[in-house]
Design a protein that fits this description.
The chain has about 240 residues and is of the alpha/beta class. The chain has a single domain (about 1-230), classed as Rossmann fold. Helices cover about 30% and strands about 20% of the residues. The protein is built from seven helices and ten strands. The strands form two sheets. A seven-stranded parallel sheet has the order 1-10-9-6-2-3-5, with helices on one face. A three-stranded antiparallel sheet has the order 4-8-7. Keywords: Carbohydrate metabolism.
């Protein structure tokens, strides 16, 4: 594991954007799975600023949404809506380069990834409960590939999702499981802010356990963790 502690969120975002651009600039098809959420927002702004300013071949990058939450009466799920707004539309990414994950195709998605040459880079955040992608404590197993979790009004997952979107949650979440993520060539985990410090300590220094799903990422041979000083403040080393 490579651990990078940056001075602040802006520096974290700059470093993360650099890593994505470095991977993206390789002269072959590159398969990227990028997170939505609050942590990467500035990273995506930087990517848009840089790529709009230069001649850059975007056609070799293919994007895989590693989790998706269906929304009632919405064509796109929660993750795709965010990525479209923050990255795909501002950069003019063509539909043919966006590999949608949803409840219709999730059972074949691991095969599709393998047929495309595997994932080159997965960029993830971490929840305060230790989840990564859609792998929440109590819902995931380290043995899972891409899988589906049903959502029903009144259950804990529904309540959690209902707070995260102005739309009404649908009936399922689909997500890359730990096995799908660990099969990728490179993983990048980012976290910022004091509120992430306790779970970062558990994930990076505690036992590898399904109670803290992100702890399993330490088993990957090419994991980079990028933190600001606040998120890293409780680490022993």
């Amino acid at each position: 594991m490579k651990l990078l502690v940056t001075e602040d969120y802006e520096t974290l975002s700059q470093v993360t954007a650099d890593l994505i651009l470095l991977k993206w600039s390789e002269n072959h098809r590159v398969n990227l799975a990028l997170t939505a959420g609050s942590s990467p927002k500035r990273t995506y702004e930087i990517l848009v600023e840089r790529l709009r300013a230069v001649q850059f071949d975007q056609s070799l990058a293919h994007f895989y949404n590693f989790d998706e939450i269906s929304l009632k009466d919405q064509a796109d799920g929660l993750t795709m809506q965010a990525l479209m707004q923050e990255l795909f539309q501002p950069l003019g990414i063509e539909d043919k380069n966006i590999e949608v994950l949803d409840a219709e195709n999730y059972q074949d998605y691991d095969y599709q990834i393998a047929e495309a040459g595997g994932l080159d880079l997965v960029l993830m955040g971490i929840g305060e409960d230790g989840h990564f992608c859609g792998n929440l404590p109590g819902f995931t197993s380290f043995d899972y590939g891409v899988y589906r979790v049903p959502i029903a009004p009144g259950d804990d997952l529904y309540q959690l999702l209902d707070q995260a979107t102005p739309h009404t949650p649908g009936t399922e979440m689909v997500t890359f499981g730990p096995q799908t993520v660990l099969a990728a060539k490179e993983l990048v985990l980012i976290a910022n802010g004091k509120k992430k410090a306790a779970i970062i300590k558990q994930a990076l220094e505690g036992p590898i356990t399904e109670d803290v799903p992100a702890s399993v990422l330490r088993l990957h041979p090419n994991l980079t963790v990028i933190l600001d000083q606040e998120a890293a403040s409780e680490l022993t080393e």
